[in-house]
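Task card 7
Instruction: Convert sequence to structure tokens.
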Amino acid sequence: YKPGHQLNAYYNGRINDLAIDFNADYFRENYEKSSLSNEKSQEQEDRIVRALNPVDNQLAATKLIFSHPLWGGSISFGSEYSYSFQTNDYLSANEEYVPTSYSKIKEHNIAVFAEYNHDFSFGQIAAGVRYEHVIFDYFENHEFRKDESRKYDNIFPNASFNTQLGPIQTQLSYTAKTQRPSYWSLRKNVSYHNRFTLQTGDPTLKPTIIHDVTLTNSWRFLQLMVSFQQNRDAAVPWGKPMEGNPEITLLQPINLHKLPMLSAYISATPTIGCWSPMLTLGVTKQWLTIESGGQSYEMNRPMFTGTFNNILTLPKGFTIGADFTYQSNGHYNNSYYN
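Output:
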């Protein structure tokens, strides 16, 4: 790894009732990763495969937010801009197995947003909207690839409602947001694992659009959270036979059309004398059917999780802790966890 660089500048001030919050960041890191595979085979030729993978990452980002009282509530609005850049090269010493390739990504992300909050006698209501315009340019072997470059225009609304129902604090919220693929998943370089397994990315991989509805309740030391997510174009890892050589598996991420998922968690954090336990029980359930090899696979088995953390406070400043975790079998994305 070479030295990384981070630079930050910010301003926070006020003009009469108008609050201003501005910040800007710059980040850069680059590194080189070398790999060597020494394969010995009883039935085929031995192989020594060497490769060098230099990567350069850069990011520049700014954000400006204005806040002002309005109609008994408050409104905030502003904009964001980010520019990211990556070169990811794969320099192969064994072209007969994996070719040398050069990959470059440039991305501009421009967003404007606004949100309004108001307190009423029955609770607090907030609503907002965000618009994003993204320009994604992909270069392969120093040439611009128009077919694999993309432009995205998305609108993401959000709303929430907070209220007090007797001793219970309740919040209901809806959020639409995006989860963009990592640049590692968007590269087109082919990495060598062994003679039967290669790995690459996909520059045409779509961002995941997430619609989330969440209900949370709190009463004394008890908390309950129920969330339903609809993930459109969820990105998952995938393996398929390589064209022209089906003995080799090519690992490459793909998009699923939709992936509904329900999650529920209940937590208890009481204090009993010198004992402070924290117990959380949860379940995640998805609805997914995978088509592969001419067959359908139902991947709907729920997964149960639990954590039980304990702290005992002893005299003279001593503490003792014991933590436990549990996870059941179940499906998550296109995998079965056993």
